[in-house]
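name: query_chain
kind: protein
chains: 1
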Amino acid sequence: MSTQERSQVRPLNALVRDPRGLRMQSKEVEGTPLPGDTACAGVDDSKAKTGDIGAKIYGFFAYEHTGAPDRPLNIDTPYKTGAHASIINGPGIILVCKTTTAAAKGQILEAGANGTLTPHTTGTPLAVAEETVNEAGKILVRSLI
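structure:
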């Protein structure tokens, strides 16, 4: 099986499929974001919160890169307010996020509501869909940030 074919398989209870080029920061969590949500600045530079439409997104809430004491039970469990989460980014990394609608493989995505991604219209391009999904839900993407 080629690398390209393997990259289309979602990881099990993890977010990152391909970590080459991964950059990471540790931030105190504001609110209760889910792993894979987009991240933007909180009340100061040491904090991060769930990204939203129009927010300056600088990464994604990680799961497997967050220390065990602060890591949620699984990727469908939110972080607790005050936990220290890893925020990851890096052009080319492949990870699992959430989309608000259907998306086609190769489609450019931007920030949607509540930490999700949505098809690009006028916002900042954040990721490219690595698979086609027919409804809102989890999607494998390649980061552009």
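note: The helical segments are 3-6.
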